[in-house]
């Protein structure tokens, strides 16, 4: 049941930072932090769905994460490949539709296969969309969007007119995220106050929420605090506070 707060963000995007530090602080290998992080991710999707959020994006592997030690990269890919198939029955029970965002064609073959299977198995679910961002980078997404728009222009009789018609609203159709709702709330755990190449286009007007908690420790109360904080924000999109109040 949706909680009784005035503004529920339709799309929440999360930078799940702090797995490594969580593990180190307990004397565990980094991969154990990622395992705990993955378990926490599963719970957060449930909390989001219970709160009435319709779409949640999780930054599981960035374009830049390939630079991590090969062992850690292999560990993350193997975590994805073992965990995802096990999650599918629960996703179907809870109405979770999987989606992916990023250059997934560059992932290892096994990861691509489990992703394809989970996408297919959950495609009819309607309660919440879970967007796994894998091999995702916001700059890379914008570059891909520019290429898509240029390709379209090159095919047209008047390429200049097509490019001139591009604006800050309609350009989004060329991005990987084109068929996702715009991000309303971007949460980052782990104490850093950075966007780190996540949803750069949508971050222009997303509300930002930073938590000092390491991701595996991010609790239901922390998540609900982020939603409550969002509900208190005034989203002006460049207008004045008075204009916003009058438009209500
Ligand atoms: C950032 O913490 C986290 C990641 C780079 C990976 C997040 C992945 C999961 C939560 C597991 C689910 C994902 C897959 C692919 C199955 P960090 O390692 O940068 O933490 P640190 O800043 O404390 O070192």
Please indicate the count of domains.
Answer: 1
Give the terminus-to-terminus CA distance: 25 Å
Bin the strand percentage: 5-15%
Question: Could you say which overall geometry the principal axes of the C-alpha atoms support?
Answer: globular
CATH homologous superfamily (4th level) name: Decaprenyl diphosphate synthase-like
Q: Could you give a short account of the major beta sheet?
A: 6 strands, parallel
Determine the fraction of residues in helical runs and give it as a percent range. 40-55%
Give the structure's gist in a few sentences.
By secondary structure, this protein is an alpha/beta fold. It contains eight helices and six strands, in the order βααβαβαβααββαα.
Layout of secondary structure:
Elements: E1 11-15, H1 19-25, H2 30-51, E2 55-62, H3 70-93, E3 96-101, H4 109-122, E4 128-136, H5 138-155, H6 159-164, E5 185-188, E6 207-210, H7 220-232, H8 241-247
Parallel strand pairs: 1-2, 1-5, 2-4, 3-4, 5-6
Helix pairs in contact: 1-2, 2-3, 3-4
The structure holds farnesyl diphosphate (FPP).
Description:
- The protein is globular.
- A six-stranded parallel β-sheet has the order 3-4-2-1-5-6, with helices on both faces.
- The model is unreliable at 1-5 (pLDDT under 50).
- Helix 4 (109-122) links the parallel strand 3 (96-101) and strand 4 (128-136).
- The protein has a single domain (11-136, 182-233), classed as Undecaprenyl pyrophosphate synthetase (3-Layer(aba) Sandwich), CATH 3.40.1180.
- The protein has helices spanning 19-25, 30-51, 70-93, 109-122, 138-155, 159-164, 220-232, 241-247; strands at 11-15, 55-62, 96-101, 128-136, 185-188, 207-210.
- 45% of the residues lie in helices and 15% in strands.
- By secondary structure, it is α/β, with parallel strands linked by helices.
């Amino acid at each position: 049941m949706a909680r009784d707060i005035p503004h529920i963000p339709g799309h929440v995007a999360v930078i799940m930072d702090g797995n490594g530090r969580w593990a180190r602080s307990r004397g565990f290998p980094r991969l154990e932090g990622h395992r705990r992080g993955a378990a926490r991710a599963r719970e957060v999707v449930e909390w989001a769905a219970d709160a009435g959020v319709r779409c949640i994006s999780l930054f599981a592997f960035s374009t830049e994460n390939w630079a991590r030690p090969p062992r850690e990269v292999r560990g993350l890919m193997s975590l994805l490949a073992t965990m995802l198939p096990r999650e599918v029955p629960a996703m179907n029970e809870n109405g979770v539709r999987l989606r992916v965002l990023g250059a997934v064609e560059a992932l290892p073959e096994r990861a691509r296969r489990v992703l394809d299977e989970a996408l297919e198995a959950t495609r009819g679910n309607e309660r919440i969309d879970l967007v796994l961002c894998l091999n995702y980078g916001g700059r890379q997404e914008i570059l891909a969007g520019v290429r898509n728009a240029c390709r379209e222009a090159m095919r047209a009789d008047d390429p200049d007119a097509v490019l001139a018609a591009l604006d800050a609203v309609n350009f989004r159709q060329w991005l990987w995220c084109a068929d996702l709702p715009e991000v309303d709330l971007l949460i980052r755990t782990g104490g850093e106050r950075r966007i780190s190449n996540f949803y750069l286009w949508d971050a222009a007007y997303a509300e930002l929420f930073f938590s000092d908690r390491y991701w595996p420790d991010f609790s239901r109360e922390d998540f609900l605090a982020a939603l409550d904080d969002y509900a208190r924000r005034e989203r002006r999109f460049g207008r004045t506070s008075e204009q916003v109040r009058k438009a209500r």
